[in-house]
Amino acid sequence: MDAFTDRPFSGNPAAVCLLDAPADAAWMQDVAAEMRHSETAFVRRADDGTFELRWFTPLNEVALCGHATLATAHTLYHDGVVAAGDEIRFRTLRSGILTVRPGAEGALEMDFPAGPPVAAPAPAEFAALGTPFGWTGRNALNDWVVELPDAAAVRAVAPGIADLAGADARLVIVTAPADPGADHDFVSRTFAPRSLPGDAEDPVTGSAHCALAPYWAERLGRDALTGYQASARGGRVGVRLAGDRVVLTGRAVTVLSGDLLV
């Protein structure tokens, strides 16, 4: 599935594995490594009608993932596992209950925990970003928000991943206000040097917007905003702050379906 987009080959690709029985974590990690997407989601219907959900990168299991949750919900609706108008309740190991419901014009709305960042001095390893930056802070998930001067700086950033991986961070999120007249409110890019191989960039990161939503809501004075993640693939994430929760809105498209043979 391509998530946070309405057209194939953009947004963030995720693999979704529908399980009919409990699976071993080592097997799920092997499958995720084989899929080579930033995240692979594994979902199974529980006896109480909820769905057990776990997410793995090619390297490890993660505590929270937005785009693979969106892709999973899209799959459950698309395949008729869940009726079109019904709410989906996901039970996760580290992030509690996450709910997804149909939104307007084919979008899906995901109820996630907010992760407001608190100001903190930047680790020395952030010099690897290779660009001047201003405010820095992190949240309870150890996601760092780094504000750059403008949207052009966000698009141009090319971090030294080997050095950046030395920082104690789950995600390193660079962000800036949108250009005047843009159809979104802020831009971002997200790097996960301890979880993703290669350039470690995640194309469109729902969980990063759990930090970006409260950050920009405070600065822009509005609780409902639109973020654009300016990776090569690009993607849009609607955010609405609701107390200690964030409603993330996006679309997904099915690109490929098949059966695992092992």
UniProtKB/TrEMBL annotation:
Keyword set includes Disulfide bond: no
EC number: 5.1.-.-
Coiled-coil positions: none
UniProtKB keywords: Isomerase
Species the sequence originates in: Actinomadura rubteroloni
Family the UniProt entry places it in: Belongs to the PhzF family.
GO molecular function: isomerase activity
Active site: 39
PANTHER family assigned to the protein according to its UniProt record, in alphabetical order: PHENAZINE BIOSYNTHESIS PROTEIN, PHENAZINE BIOSYNTHESIS-LIKE DOMAIN-CONTAINING PROTEIN
GO cellular component terms listed in the entry, alphabetical order: cytoplasm
Domain of life, per lineage: Bacteria
Matches recorded under Gene3D superfamilies: Diaminopimelate Epimerase, Chain A, domain 1
Protein name in UniProt: Putative isomerase YddE
Pfam family, one: PhzC-PhzF
